[in-house]
Amino acid sequence: MSGYDILLTGGTVVDGTGAGVYPADLAISNGRIAAVGRLGDDVPARTVMDVTGRLVMPGFVDSHVHADTVLVRPDVQEAMLRQGITSVVLGQDGLSFAPSSAATAAYVGRYFAAVDGPPPPELAEGCTVAGLLSYYDRRTPINVAYLVPLGTVRHEVLGPDDHDAGPARMPEMVRLVEQAIEEGAVGVSTGLEYVPGIFADFDELAALCRVAAAAGVPYVSHLRSYDGGTAPGMLEARELGRATGVPIHVSHLRGRSEPLLAHLEDCAADGVDATFDAYPHIYGNTILAMKALPARIQAGGVDATMRRLADPRVRAELQAEWFPRIEAEVATAILGNVAGEKFRWAEGATLAQACEKSKLSFADLLCEMLLDSDLAVGVIIPAPGGDESDMREMIRDDRHLGCSDAIYLGGHPHPRGWGAFARFLGHHTRDLGDWTWSQAAWHLAGHPARRFQLADRGRLVEGGVADIVVVDPETVADRATYDDPRQLADGVRDVLVAGEIVLARGELTGATPGRALRRGEPGR
């Protein structure tokens, strides 16, 4: 034989199947795993990597991340790869850039500016899911899978207002979802606290979930409500699973573990295939408008919301009837991303601290900041109930998939984008023992690859695509903190995607073998 392309020698393989951990060499040819085992000392290979003392694991899949615009940035790629993330699932929370017209892409870019930012120029005039996936293909070192965002679909057909789809418009929405799945989407997503997804009723969701069920892909939902662990939105998701047969997957499920796990058991009892993702942090991250404004104020899009916030009568009504109900909860939010110049100084402060420094009331600061930023304000917020013990109980559950829910925008972002997966490995696996190394590979690679049908990925087996991360089990750790969120993780210095080295000795190589992972296609 002419030899292998790359040979990793002396390491300990953790294969992502949930099986044990075992010493083995791993050989790669033509982007795929050619052999795993004791291959001997004289195996020919163009490149030999000595990984003695380290774990050889399948590339990790971030099941929920907001990188739709920023994935092309080298600093974001570095932050991901330094944690071993080789694939991401985009199109989260019901809002992204396909399928869309120019008007819908512009709406998403503006409404979700503090989460995803504006659409890339190549997608700004609108695009299909096929076009979006082609945009990502081989553009970065990271693989991309995509969910059909049902809020985007709703806006494309009904706009940003509280309209009922009804029998006249529902077929158009169904057609868009069918086409998107045919073009390679691996599921559908909702953001039922965001506009316009918040206006979707059960019948609308059920009609679109039937399309997903027919294709065998999951319904991925940012629930309508989480509420401290009782998660009443889970009841809606469970009923959608029962009514349509769609597999359900709950986004960033957090709160008190006992009622949340009971909901999942109820799903199982009803024959509903239910999974969830969660990140290893107590604080979350979202847009201020969603947390601080009632849905009726947000109806009609950003311009309509801005007009209402500028109207003294509306603001007086909010001051009297709405803000007193939410101030105690929202005032503790940390300002992570403030787009407007007038209040950008407040990034890193809580809303309460910003009120004190600015000498403005809570209502006036909130309205003025949103107006000055065109609503593009992101906040870091405490999770709805529960503490670290609840979070640890949730991630130990076999139905859990690893995620970061990272948002990479703003002057003071949440640290999870730079450290969530390293924290899973260092803090929760090595230090606390919440997982074994074998379980870590399953939660972070094998399980999400299986759930989203990422063919030939998530496992280190002969014939599989060679997405591989080399982990130092003694040093892997997250360094990012709420005070200093952009610190790169330690312990992952070598990463391969499709058999190409994309991170070498902790540095980006410049290789861009990341592929669009289309539903039903063999791994490439």
Give me the secondary-structure topology:
Elements: E1 4-9, E2 12-14, E3 21-23, E4 25-29, E5 32-37, E6 45-50, E7 55-58, E8 60-62, H1 74-81, E9 85-90, E10 100-101, H2 102-111, E11 126-127, H3 129-136, E12 143-149, H4 150-158, H5 166-182, E13 187-191, H6 202-215, E14 219-222, H7 233-244, E15 248-250, H8 257-269, E16 274-278, E17 283-287, H9 288-292, H10 295-298, H11 302-310, H12 312-321, H13 323-330, E18 334-338, H14 351-358, H15 362-372, E19 377-382, H16 388-396, E20 400-402, H17 416-431, H18 437-451, E21 468-471, E22 492-497, E23 500-504, E24 507-508
Task: Please report the total strand number as a whole number.
Answer: 24
The geometry reads as globular
Q: What is the strand content?
A: 15-25%
Amino- and carboxy-terminal Cα gap: 23 Å
Largest sheet report: 8 strands, parallel
Query: What is the oligomeric state here?
Result: single chain
